[in-house]
Design a protein that fits this description.
The complex is a heterodimer of chains A (about 375) and B (about 350). Chain A contains twelve helices and eight strands. Chain A has about 375 residues and is of the alpha+beta class. In chain A, helix 3 packs antiparallel against helix 11 (about 335-345) and helix 8 packs across helix 10 (about 290-320). Chain B has two domains: about 15-45; about 75-360, MetI-like fold (Orthogonal Bundle). Chain B has helices at about 5, 15-25, 25-55, 65-70, 75-85, 95-110, 120-135, 155-180, 185-200, 200-215, 220, 225-250, 255-260, 265-295, 310-315, 325-360. The longest helix of chain B has about 35 residues, at about 325-360.
Chain lengths: ~375, ~350
Amino acid sequence: MLNSFRNRKFREALLQAVVVSGAAVLIIAMIINAKASLDAQSLTTGYGFLERSTGWDFSFSVLPYSISDTYSKTILIGILNTLLLGFLGIFFATVIGVIIGLIRTSKNYLFSFLGTVYVEVFRNVPLILQAVFWYSIVAHLPKPRSAINLGDAVFLSGRGVYFPGFNIHGLAVAFIALLIIAWLIFLPTLKHRLDASSRYYQLRKIGWFAVLAVAIVVTYMARIPETTLIDYPALKGLNFRGGVRMPPELSALVIAISLYGGAYIGEVMRAGLMSVPKGQIEAAFVNGLSNFHIFSRIRFPLAIRAILPSLTNQYVQLMKATTIGLVVGFSDFFMIISTSINQSGQTLELLSILMGGFLLINLSIAFVMNSLNRRIAIKGQESRL
Amino acid sequence: MDLANIIQPPSTPSLLSRLRANLFGNVLDSVVSIVCGVLLVMLVYSVIDWAFVSSIWRAEDESLCKEAGGACWSVIDARHRIIFFGLFPYEEHWRSTLACVVMTATIVLSCFPWFWSALRLSALWLAGFGTFYILMHGGLFGLSVITPERWGGLALTIFIFAAVSIIGMPLSILLALGRRSKLPVIAKMVGLFIDFFRSLPLLTILFTAAVITPFVLPGWLQGDKLYRVIAGFAIFFACYQAENIRAGLQAIPAGQDEAGSTLGLSYWHRISRIQLPQAFRNSLPAIVNQFVITFKETSIVTIVGFFEILASGAAAYGTGKWTVHYIEVYVFIGLIYFMFVFSLSRYGAYLERKLRVGHG
């Protein structure tokens, strides 16, 4: 026995066995304890409650809903709300980030200084403080009657921002969006198959026309009868009718996430642009390329390869940051789950859904970005990226 | 011919001529510079005008605010005690102030390289944190006891940050070493643990710690809600910090560790004398950056129901005539955060420059 202790292999195996069994005991003890406290509250475990109707209201939904909807549908709405907020935030943050990255790499001292001021201000204040700040500003906009009018189409008011919308069935919009996404995903495969020959460019042009034609036909067929195609918001009585309303909670969060994320993405962009070897740019300059072409053909394509991994990270972070929506009362995934926990008491089940949902969202972002990364990698350098 | 004159390098242009070449080198640059200059002047002017010139400073002058058109700092004058101290008893506010000063001094001191050894750093933090806790909690030296439920404002923010750092840092070293362990089962398990926590938003972890752990922990292990939240936060922090440390460990050439083994050093000696010192040096900027992020993230505890500086700010403008002055309160809190976070992040950038020079 003593001899086996002297044996290193044996000691290592023993140590691992102890750690594994310790973790197992810990988890089993937690489960037993949870079971006991759930029994004490006489709650039924399992996911059966998902089919019960909720009976409570929440602030915002992308789908039509009622308080008699089931838990599963309410949670789905929460996920869709989070995705909407996340994608809007990520989109605008990327736009701001690209602009800030360009400004900060400008040679002009004054110009790049302005970019620095932006980054330092928005990066050094907590996102949640920015969210409540923007929310208190957006919610204090004038009442609908005296709303700020932008060209009779967009109205800013304390009840929300009103945009013109389309009088089309929601399903048709979803169909067109899916069609365009599917085509965009298919394009690189086509390019690979046809080796970027002139036939590929021909097919690409035809494809775009086909997508456009289908979209027009679907739009025409799915129109809601006896209405105009574009639905402008208009003041009727005390509030606006028609158009698309963006509630103040959503606008405040989109503003906060875009400005905050823009500062971070701006830094990622700057680092990427700075990582392009000077010799590449000088060579392009010597070859007589214009400033625009140096940027669009040499600097940016090289920089984007250095940028994508950190950009993926930022996107995942921003997606996780949407959970602060709770602080201004936006009914995102997290808020729906925490309300459900309060209302139904199915704590552990709902928590597992929450964690699983975030795992799925984050893994999907990472998957999309990583395959993009592989696709644009310079041939022969894949392993480095 | 004077040879010395020929081989002299071209004289460096003066600052003024360099500036002129940079800002007004060609027409486009001049236009951009002028537009930016005007923008900058307008920005600075409006900020100064709002914050200093047309602003009202004293609480009793609140009625003048509307006319003045600038910032109404009266709300800060009247309500700053709520923002800084929350529900802390009025006559004990000096304790909270002193505690914040002690903890800030601890943070500042640990930025000096003299303190960068395991012994000095832990002694400094334990002393600083201990003083902070005694001042806040009382019960010793004739100080009256004030339980954590009544802590609030800036002191609570700093307490959470300090407690998370002091628990999270040793934990992160253990996790980093565990993930790099040669024992496959331990490495896999620790890796799974780290990746699981990193894939979740901090809020879900804090929420779980606050609301759900009472279900799975036996009563004697639950403790106060504040301590559960700090424990959850510390695990989250440790998982991120462990990855920074691991990156630092991976950058060390394998020869270093092998040389240590050849000289007969034990595992713990190799880790504590060879690997960790170099790993910390390699990833110091990333480690400081994680502290910066953590300081900002302490604001999230407001959602799980703590009265830290963000919540106490909302309370400060929440009543009576102050409700219209929310912008001033948020700007004030933003400035407090900015002071801490900006100086920490500048310090991180300074370290990055300094260490890069050291590497040659």
